[in-house]
Amino acid sequence: MSDKKVKGIDEPCCKQASEILNLSQGNSSQTQNSPHLIGHPRYHVLCNQNYNKAEIVENLESLGCTEVVTEEQRNTKTAFLNREDQNRVLHEILTSEQGKQAIDQLNKGEVEVILRTPTSQLIKNRYLMMSVVKNGTRVQDKPANSTVLILGQHKNLPEGTYVHVKTFYPTE
Prior knowledge:
The structure is a single chain. The chain is of the alpha+beta class. The chain has one domain (15-171). The protein has helices at 15-24, 53-58, 60-63, 66-73, 83-94, 97-107; strands spanning 76-80, 112-118, 129-134, 137-143, 146-152, 164-171. A 3-stranded antiparallel beta sheet has the order 1-3-4. A 3-stranded antiparallel beta sheet has the order 2-5-6.
């Protein structure tokens, strides 16, 4: 249990969502039984069209994107099509009743909360598209059925810091 307080979103879309995701990327969180010690939500976003693979590999923790990460790790991941989609969906979830309850749980001492949100429960992002990426190759784009969001508290940042996003990805 932790007694640190975290912040959610209190402004219109989507600047705070972007800040939350960027601050979480590559940074540690407090954790209980999770392999996700280091935040990596941006690993679940496709690289932009003009990405520099060498630069991303060199700065994988901070710049990671799905094609490079899956090629380096030799695995398969699902991904948002771009950072703007990920920002918008995070904003909608954190400002929903479910998201506010998760922030309350963290502020009452939980160190990790997992939110599974069917896209049918989203209003603005109900028709979210996602991509499946395998070993660095974009295999298929398809409608997402839900998202998984693992929230926590930043390990070494002061009280009042934004919530930590350990990971955030769309699912089939």
